[in-house]
Specification:
The complex is a heterodimer. By secondary structure, chain A is mainly β. Chain A has helices spanning 3-7, 10-15; strands at residues 17-21, 27-28, 43-47, 51-60, 73-80, 85-89, 103-113, 120-128. Chain A has one domain. A five-stranded antiparallel β-sheet of chain A has the order 6-5-4-7-8. The longest helix of chain B is centred in the middle third of the chain and has 16 residues, at 145-160. Chain B is 35% helix and 18% strand. The chains are: A mainly beta, B alpha/beta. The A-B interface holds A 5, 9, 12, 30, 55-68, 70, 73, 75-77, 84-89, 95, 100, 111-112, 121, 123 and B 122-124, 126-127, 130, 136-144, 146-148, 150-152, 154-155, 158, 200-205, 249-252, 256.
């Protein structure tokens, strides 16, 4: 049931913890190991604001296991205020509310149900900012 | 590096083969390919077997396909291995086979592209396909490959000012061509009006702009120059072969509407072959959706950025156009065989280069271009085929 797999992502999933480059200020999400030729000390942890806007989205009707009881649901690429794109579901909205460029904010929601003996997996989704 | 030739091909029809096993399909295609070179070359001369397959473990319930299929073919003992690169598995297997011949390690090798997907329900197949994405940060969010292409389509429409129906010429062309292909799954034509009315699968992608996954196997036999010379009337030279990768996760790319791996592998393969995009007479691309073909046409240098839907609407992808595409029906209408697609592409292009493509024949086709993608273009494999005759 992938207990450790989900537990070790808790910083990213619950708090949008990414990394900031100490020299250039570039922010990336999620955090990742240093690439070849990259000094691990140049990237420091940082928590993203959770604010952003819709880069693109799709409402999907054919879903993988664990998500197939939730269709249709909207997925998006969200352009975060700090720069990176993130892949996430949208929530608390109707399809008609969605448009490229629409401001969104992160909320914590249930991502999937892995079944009777499994886990309820929680993580980030994004909702339109109330105006 | 030595020259490499394609000397034999075979393929099963693409269909929901409920009565047939993965082995059964693979051996039908292999027998057909071997029959093309018999009696000059005996099956016992096959020195190695490369199997391109994406979903065997999770969807067909069978891994270790190298030994599995070599053994089933009566070739136990030879070098045999499965090559996996998601939807690009077939192209990646062909690339490994081409290197084996070019290096001189083997004079005759078989490449099998095979996929058996219809034993499982849709949600399991979607789970298998989504393994090609970043599992922790894409699949775990509930996205699918189809919804990722859909997001690129919406962004493309926003950037260049197209409506969704601007992509209709891609599936319309694929279906028109498939009608003449006895091995295709959907042998009927569609029109832009039907496209406009089709139900959504992953908005803005609708049912007539999404391929259906099905079962099938295709085989090519590769040979060195000495073997090919004995079979020269049927041989086609594999003049270029290149595999490139991009950042796996879509959200990690600086410009998501540019398929960097497609560009790199195409440029490298064309350079090896000593040809330019303008020299290509007929092509096969990964085209489960119009947007996929559009981005590949642009990234590979066949058309300008932002112009692919217009190019298709102007007849550019029809058999008489400047970039004839999907002449056997493509992923959409021939049927989407997952990781086997890269081998089906080559089988079709060999038909074109031999002048055996019937109603979809491109006049005087001499140079052909095959490119298959894995995931949302995170792997791209390009092959250039040239008929020297």
């Amino acid at each position: 049931m992938d207990l450790a797999k989900h537990w070790r992502q808790k910083g990213a999933r619950y708090r949008l913890e990414g990394q900031r480059h100490r020299t250039t200020g570039e922010v990336r999400f999620p955090a990742r190991p240093a690439a070849l030729g990259d000094d691990p000390a140049t990237w420091e942890p940082c928590t993203l604001s959770g604010k952003g806007e819709i880069y693109s989205f799709s409402v999907l009707r054919q879903a993988p296991e664990g998500f197939d009881q939730a269709t249709p649901y909207p997925v998006a690429l969200v352009k975060l205020a700090e720069g990176p794109l993130v892949t996430a579901q949208l929530t608390d909205c109707a399809e008609a509310d969605l448009a490229i460029g629409r401001p969104v904010e992160m909320v914590t929601r249930r991502l999937k149900d892995t079944g009777e003996d499994g886990l309820l997996v929680y993580g980030y989704k994004f909702r339109p900012v109330l105006q | 590096m030595k020259n490499v030739y394609i000397v034999g091909t075979g393929a099963t029809p693409v269909a929901e083969h409920y009565t047939r096993t993965l082995t059964d399909l693979a051996l039908e295609a292999l027998r057909a390919a071997v029959a093309e070179v018999t009696p000059v070359v005996a099956p016992g001369n096959i020195g190695a077997l490369y199997v391109g397959n994406a979903l065997g473990d999770i969807v067909a319930g069978q891994a270790h396909l190298g030994a599995f299929l070599a053994s089933a073919a009566g070739l136990a003992g030879i070098e045999a291995v499965r090559v996996e690169a998601a939807g690009a598995s077939g192209g990646a297997a062909l690339r490994q086979a081409a290197l084996a011949v070019a290096s001189g390690a083997h004079d005759l090798v078989a490449v099998i592209g095979v996929e058996k997907v219809t034993d499982k329900l849709d949600a399991t197949v979607e789970t298998g396909l989504a393994l090609a994405t970043d599992s922790d940060f894409e699949a775990e969010q509930g996205v699918t490959l189809t919804s990722q292409w859909a997001m690129l389509m919406r962004r493309y429409m926003h950037t260049y000012g197209y409506p969704a129906e601007a992509f209709a010429p891609f599936p319309v062309n694929a279906h028109t061509n498939a009608a003449a292909n006895r091995g295709a799954m959907y042998r009927f034509s569609i029109n832009p009006d039907k496209y406009k009315k089709a139900g959504q699968v992953a908005s803005p992608l609708n049912m007539l702009d999404c391929s259906s996954l099905a079962d099938g196997a295709a085989v090519v036999l590769l040979a060195s120059e000495s073997v090919a010379r004995e079979l020269k009337s049927r041989s086609v030279r594999l003049a270029g072969s290149a595999l490139a990768t991009d950042r796996l996760a879509l959200h990690d790319r600086r410009d998501p509407l540019w398929l960097d791996a497609a560009q790199q592998s195409a440029a490298s393969a064309l350079k090896q072959a000593g040809v330019a995009p303008d020299d290509v007479d007929v092509l096969e691309l990964t085209d489960p959706h119009g947007i996929t073909a559009a981005l590949a046409l642009e990234s590979c240098g066949f058309v300008e950025r932002g112009s692919a839907p217009r190019h298709a609407a102007d007849g550019g992808i029809a058999p008489g156009g400047t970039t004839p595409l999907a002449t056997a029906g493509g992923y959409k209408a021939r049927g989407d065989v997952g990781g086997a697609g890269g081998i089906y592409q080559v089988v079709e292009l060999i038909r074109q280069l031999r002048g055996e493509a019937g109603a979809a024949q491109v006049t005087d086709a001499r140079v052909a271009f095959a490119q298959c993608l894995g995931g949302v273009g995170a792997t791209a494999v390009t092959h250039i085929l040239v008929n020297d005759a």
